[in-house]
Amino acid sequence: MAESMMSKAATMEIPINSNGDSRNLAEDDSLEQAAKIQWSLREKVGSPAALRDLQQVMVSGPNLNETSIVSGGYGGTTEGIIPTSSIKGPAIHLNTDFPGNRRIPNEGQGSNMHHTSSNSSMTAEEATRGVAVEKFDIVKKWGLNTYKCTKQMISERFGRGSRTVDLELEAQIEVLRETKRKYEIVLNLARALTNHFYSMVQTQHALGDTFADLSQKSPELRDEFGYNAETQKLLCKNGETLLGAINFFVSSINTLVNKTMEDTLMTIKMYENARLEFDAYRADLEELNLGPRDAVTMARIEAAQQQYQIHKDKYERLRNDVTIKLKFLEENKVKVMHKQLLLFHNAISAYFAGNQQQLEQTLKQFNIKLKPPGADKPSWLEEQ
């Protein structure tokens, strides 16, 4: 009886297919390997090596989802194949919270990063909004000021509005503008004289060189050509000296007209703009004072009074600046023109009188240094 049971058990351990041949034992090996894994997990619960063993087996071993279980009876003619994926059992949860492991609270860090980025974006948005509001206020003030000034200017043009006038200052400004126009005419004529005289000096220089060359090639007229060559060279030398004096005269007049007078006229232009703004806000305040005196109007009157006082102070300050600049300009103009007119007269008189010594003395008197011939030309190194 015992022998029969032992043989029967041994026979059941070997799966037989329908043809009576033995099957591949790979499937049984995989089942046995899975059983060993369960046993090792039960004995090594809480050990860090369990997780590493399981990961190694799962990587190197067969896929249990694809493993089949073969069942067959003793002497049976059929076999049953049951996929393991259809078997449902309790899930195995691995606890990885071993004492040697450290858990990093990423959730809190992500929350902090999210709050930081949101705060920075809100700060940037508020800064952008503040800049936009500031620019809008600037444009609004500029538009309102331009409207008031344009309205005042049109009213003055058609004789409907009043304007603030300083008769004495206006007369001085008109004299300055007329003086500047006349000095510009003198400057243009002096430049034309310089250009023509420079051309004459160059012609004399070329003529002197030609006479000198002919005196060498014409023995019978050597003396005559020689005299004329020396005369032209002397005239050329005196002409260059006179050109130095005229250029100094032109440079000084140009500085007086286009820098000193122009600077004063720029201040006068700022003064006139301030006067226009002052009259515009004065007319606005007068118009508000003629209206009703309710709470809203009183607030507007107070704001208009502040703007009126601001532009009044600006107008008076620029008026004082113009008065001072006109005074200093007149003194400077007299001093500069006295020196330059004396230089021009002495230089022209000495040149056409043929007095070379007096001409050179005039340049020394006014500290005028002549450039040597060819000083304006670039050197051979600069030409390379």
How would you sum up this structure, described in words?
This protein is an all-alpha fold and about 375 residues long. The chain is about 75% helix and about 0% strand. It has a two-stranded antiparallel ribbon. Helix 6 (about 220-290) runs parallel beside helix 8 (about 355-365). The longest helix has about 70 residues, at about 220-290. It is elongated, with a radius of gyration of 55 Å.
- What is the 3D shape? elongated
How many E-type strands?
2
User: What gyration radius follows from the Cα positions, in whole Å?
Assistant: 55 Å
Helix-strand makeup class: mainly alpha
**Mean pLDDT across all amino acids:** 75
Question: Helical amount among residues, as a percent range?
Answer: over 70%
* Percentage of residues in strands: under 5%
What's the story with the biggest beta sheet? 2 strands, antiparallel
Q: Strands of the largest sheet, in order across it?
A: 1-2
CA-CA gap between termini: 125 Å
| Helix and strand run | HHHEEHHHHHH
Number of helical stretches of at least 4 residues: 9
Low-pLDDT parts are 1-28, 57-110, 380-384
